[in-house]
Amino acid sequence: MAGDAHGNAPATASRSWFRPSLVEGDQDFASVTRRVAGVVERPKPPRAWYIAITISGTLTLVLFSLVAYLIATGVGVWGNNAPAFWGWDIVNFVFWVGIAHAGTLISAILFLLRQHWRTSINRAAEAMTLFAVCCAGLYPAIHVGRIWLAYWLFPVPNQMSMWPNFRSPLLWDVFAVSTYATVSALFWYMGLVPDLATLRDRAVTPLKRFLYGFFALGWRGSSRHWHRFERAYLILAALATPLVLSVHSVVSFDFAVSLVPGWHTTIFPPYFVAGAIFSGFAMVVTIMVPARQLFGLKELVTVRHLENMNKVILATGSLVGLAYLTEFFIAWYGGNAYERFAFLNRALGPYSWAYWLMVFCNVVAPQFFWFKRVRTGLLPMVAVAILVNVGMWLERFVIVVISLTRDYLPTSWGHFTPTLVDVFTFAGTFGLFFTLFLLFCRFLPMVAIAEVKTVLPAAHPHAPQGAAGKEHAHA
Amino acid sequence: MLEPANTAAAPRGKLHAIVAEFDDVTAVTEAAKRVRDAGYTQFDVYSPFPIHGIERAMGVRSTRLPWIVLACGLSGTAGALLLQWWTNAVDYPFKISGKPLFGIPAAIPITFELTVLFSAFAAFLGMFALNRLPRHHHPIFEHPRFKRATDDGFFLAIEAADTRFDANRTRELLQSLSSHPIVACDEPADDGATPRWVRAGLVSVAVVALIPFALALASRFQDSSKPPFHIVGDMDWQTRYRAQAANPHYADGRAMRPDVAGTVAFGELATDQVLATGKTGADWTTKIPLTVDAALLQRGRARYGIYCAPCHGIAGYGDGLVAARASELQEPTWVPPASLHDAVVRGRAAGQLFDTILNGVRTMPAYGRQIPRDDAWAIVAYVRALQRSQNATTEDVPPAARAAMGL
């Protein structure tokens, strides 16, 4: 790489130093701080923010009231009934857990793979992960009916002298999802600490200085601290990587370990993980495009970032399509009459509309990303991403509901219809998700300030003699 | 000139460090190397982001954090395996679908999750602990321009605690490295520690918060005759109708539904009227409709011991444990169980005894729900034997045995 910038002050570092679109415009350390912290420090957020939070806040209230209604009345307020004892509750749980995968994937796996382009999107994606886990975790907690007994899921010594059954996938699920939520929160918060210190040092009101300062834990940017910080970050990334893969595998065990035709297949873990990444990235694109427009972060979250994510969507979408084909092939090749029926029923049964809509959204729609224009155009990419979100929701619906309503004994077949409570609870989880996200955008740095600075060319020391061309190679 | 960081008015503690400021990574890295080469060890570089290679320049040794994480991760693994094995195979052996009580494959998911969880906490808490954070107060913050350290400034501080530290020589060294003014940071007079009353308050809150757990723990080692305490007593308020309760949904107002006309409930089909009701036509049968043999009598004796003896007594005199207790308490409403050796009872036909068992009589409750039909007949046979045993005459003794008994 060019060595012409030797000795320059960081503020004027030549752009030819680094791959041009990682960060756009002539950014130096101070301007990165200003750009990101500026979003939080603005006295008032843009009008659109108020409109958005009014809508999402209202939906959140709807969610809370419906959950209260459910707890007071019982799960009968949902459409779940024999034979579909799992309905939208589990569909939505799996949907949200899936979305929760992108954040940690971006922060952990892409970090280990040294994909520097993740830097300016990882913070927001991790936040999204946390908020999606909140929405996901809500469902299993409330679907147990008597939610005040939900602690039975944990190995708490109790007056009944009983312990949970550790050989049940449902219990594995409890551990997987709660571990995932905890580790993602730790990962996210740890990354935030140095940036909170930045906000603390820039805060003008005493309240802000106190709050940011309190959570910044007295971070002072000591190199000895940074050394341990980076090591801890690396370790957390290394831990989160298998964790991310394990979570959706375990979720898939909820189905695969049972004997219901259409569920009892070994392909489930990888198939679920691919689907989770697919839906997660689609959600990141759906959210980041408006967010970067709204908060003026176009130079940090560049089209190159979005394009890279779209490539991931294309790859995982194709994997998901392959999984659909494999399922059908195995159903035929396996020679099990029930299994064959289950899949024919998906494609031709009473819910075939859901199946074919799903195939369109998940398999056909992402293929448009082969075209660079679609991959880099804001509107087309959001359109595809939304289709993918719809498709992935339908996938869970297809798996849960179609399999349950028609299994072995035709006399026990049934039909599932959601109630209004189902529909509004689901809408409410979107409200919760977006409310949390909007609050995050308003009060916390949306982009990892310290981390973005490390990908600026000026972040890399070079010998004053100017004989260190090799050292720049990693920029 | 060495600028003091604190304003003159503020009370000052002893010198903490001498600080130099830099504008870019290259300069600060170079300065770190020079300070290291000058033999200093107690110095630190402050930067808004991790500087690549600064550890080497400063001579910082690699952190032992990975080892801490490894240890915690392994204890997570061991803890998870022990937990699953002890709870499901030892403390509460729990057979499910014929699976083994403990097996590695089924234990893998939770073992994995707990390993990751423990390691993650170790990495997170360990990093902050090794860094001695949270520490909201530090002398370096006294530096008037230190806010740049989280924005775009770089600082190098040599601490007074370093053995090679010498106010003048150290300052000269730093002056030769940085073009910014060199600043001395003092320890603040008050060490920034949390006030004593706050700490005392926190400790007492923590202690109070532990009391419920301590009580719960203590109760595990105490014997108690009270029923277990349920936080939520769901089982006590089940929404169902009790027997004999009223239910406005039905025209007849009864919660219990009579059999639909013309139907027979499962297991209640009576093809033999005598066997089922103890009656021939309108009269009680006097003959037991089953073959009375030793097996039947044994069965009857066992059932009698279970169902009748508590009230009527082993020998049938109405002096069972329940009756004895009731007369001891002198319960005014208590009707003593009849003695089965009363002339009246002895005069009852077998069918009527059978009916008494199934349907009860006056204050004696019905046992038809608990005692199957054939068992009821067995009891009747045994009661008959009991009655005969307590009212026997010499004629009842077989002639062969009479001589042996001296009769």
Write a compact overview of the structure shown.
The complex is a heterodimer of chains A (about 475) and B (about 400). By secondary structure, chain A is mainly α.
Please provide a written account of the structure:
The complex is a heterodimer of chains A (475) and B (407). Chain A is 66% helix and 0% strand. Chain A is an all-alpha fold and 475 residues long. Chain A has one domain (29-146, 174-474). Chain B folds into 2 domains: 1-190, no CATH class; 274-394, Cytochrome c-like domain (Cytochrome Bc1 Complex, Chain D, domain 2, Orthogonal Bundle). Helix content of chain B is 44%, strand content 8%. Classes of the chains: A mainly alpha (475), B alpha+beta (407).
Features:
heterodimer, A: 475 residues, mainly alpha, 16 helices, 0% strand, disordered N terminus, disordered C terminus, B: 407 residues, alpha+beta, Cytochrome Bc1 Complex, Chain D, domain 2, 2 domains, two-stranded antiparallel ribbon, 14 helices, 7 strands, rod-shaped
Average per-residue pLDDT of chain B, rounded, comes to 88
Question: How is the main sheet of chain A built?
Answer: none
Q: Quote the distance from N terminus to C terminus of chain B.
A: 135 Å
Helical residues, percent of chain A = 55-70%
Run of helices and strands of chain B? EEHEHHHEHEHHEEHHHHHHH
Task: Give, in spatial order, the strands making up the sheet with the most strands of chain B.
Answer: 1-5-2-4-3
Write the layout of secondary structure elements.
The complex is a heterodimer of chains A (475) and B (407).
Chain A: H1 29-41, H2 47-73, H3 88-99, H4 101-112, H5 122-143, H6 169-202, H7 206-216, H8 223-256, H9 268-294, H10 303-334, H11 337-348, H12 352-364, H13 372-376, H14 378-405, H15 420-443, H16 449-455
Chain B: E1 3-4, E2 12-22, H1 25-37, E3 43-46, H2 54-58, H3 65-91, H4 104-130, E4 154-159, H5 167-177, E5 183-188, H6 196-219, H7 273-277, E6 279-280, E7 283-284, H8 294-307, H9 309-312, H10 321-329, H11 343-347, H12 350-359, H13 373-390, H14 399-405
Parallel strand pairs in B: 1-5
Antiparallel strand pairs in B: 2-4, 2-5, 3-4, 6-7
Helix pairs in contact in B: 3-4, 8-13, 12-13
